[in-house]
Design brief:
The protein is of the alpha/beta class and 344 residues long. 19% of the residues lie in helices and 24% in strands.
């Protein structure tokens, strides 16, 4: 069919008859302006599970409640972790089946991170806003690893978090040789046996703080959490008698309230790990986690690497002269191993 009538040269169709399909995007202009959400309530992230966040609202008040949240679309590239303070809108009733929405993450006071290994620049945020780190090791079964503890200490120093140390299963082995490695550090140490845990002593250290629990799999970390917070119900595991390794029983970080003499605090139990990468740590902060050696290193020349072959290194000279204690020499070896990893 022709568009034109062959007899009078008039068009068969008029443009006004043509139907214009409306735009799917609509006529409303796009904007980057986000709602202010002035009615948002601030809460504490207690747990994260596959895109759902358990948030505590109205902490310490009569209407305190937990709500399940998703994140706002504008936060899809923002990590939301256990310990974060967040602003929440939507259904805040906490009733089963309801879902609120996280629209803001408050500024963090501290951030504890780790990487897959020391050469990996990709960091993973473990918890936010913790002011203490409780390092849990076992006197035996599995054997304590001083170098792993050193890594925890470096991560704590880098994050500005105060470290504590709890040694469990002291009825299985004498912890004194292991603890001698850290005797010259300003580190609070508590020992515990399988039959008797000093819960009052540990609780006093925890109330008034947010404390992240870290430790190798199988050291009794979840058992300690359950004793301190009976409602936790964290799964506990055993140590393989062949490999000497513990089984992972905690798959995600979860917060629990701990109380003592009318005061409360928060403990954050994290999954047990066998390694703790420090790829995110500034190498200048590594030596700061070894305060006993840091004081000696003040006499090192500027730019000293503190490695075994470093010229005029005060640390190496002190080790050669025998002025370092046996514990300090062991920690110097640990320090140099860490520094070698970063310079490799």
């Amino acid at each position: 069919m022709s568009w034109w009538d062959s007899d009078d040269d008039e068009p068969l169709f008029d443009e006004s008859d043509v139907r214009v399909r409306p735009s799917r995007r609509g006529s409303r202009p796009r904007t980057k302006t986000r709602p202010a959400h002035k009615d948002a309530e601030t809460g504490l992230v207690l747990a994260v599970d596959r895109g759902r966040y358990t948030v505590l609202l109205f902490e310490g008040k009569r209407n305190e409640r937990e709500v399940t949240c998703t994140r706002a679309s504008e936060l899809r590239r923002t990590a939301i972790v256990n310990g974060d303070r967040v602003d929440v809108v939507g259904d805040l009733s906490g009733d089963e089946g309801t879902l609120a929405r996280i629209v803001r993450v408050k500024e963090r006071t501290t951030v504890l991170r780790r990487s897959a290994d020391d050469t990996d620049d990709v960091e993973r945020i473990i918890v936010a806003n913790a002011d203490q780190m409780l390092i849990v090791v076992a006197a035996a079964n599995p054997e304590p690893r001083a170098r792993l503890v050193d890594r925890y200490l470096v991560a704590a120093f880098d994050a500005g978090i105060a470290p504590l140390l709890v040694v469990t299963k002291t009825d299985l082995a004498d912890p004194a040789p292991f603890l001698a490695t850290f005797a010259e550090l300003p580190l609070t140490v508590v020992t515990s046996s399988t039959e008797s845990m000093p819960l009052d002593e540990i609780s006093r250290l925890l109330v008034g703080h947010t404390t992240v629990f870290v430790g190798h799999s199988g050291v009794g970390k979840s058992t300690l959490v359950n004793a301190l917070s009976p409602d936790a119900n964290r799964a506990t595991g055993h140590v393989n008698v062949v490999t000497g390794r513990g089984r992972h029983t905690s798959s995600s970080a979860v917060s629990y309230r701990v109380s003592h003499d009318g005061e409360t605090g928060w403990i954050i139990d994290t999954p047990g790990v066998r390694s703790f990468g420090l790829g995110h740590v500034d190498t200048d902060n590594i030596l700061g986690a070894f305060p006993d050696l840091d004081a000696v290193a003040e006499s090192c020349p500027r730019g000293c690497t503190h490695l075994p072959d470093a010229p005029d290194c005060a640390l190496n000279e002190a080790a050669d002269a025998g002025t370092l204690s046996d514990a300090a020499i062991g920690r110097l070896d640990s320090l140099q191993r860490l520094l070698t990893t970063f310079t490799a």
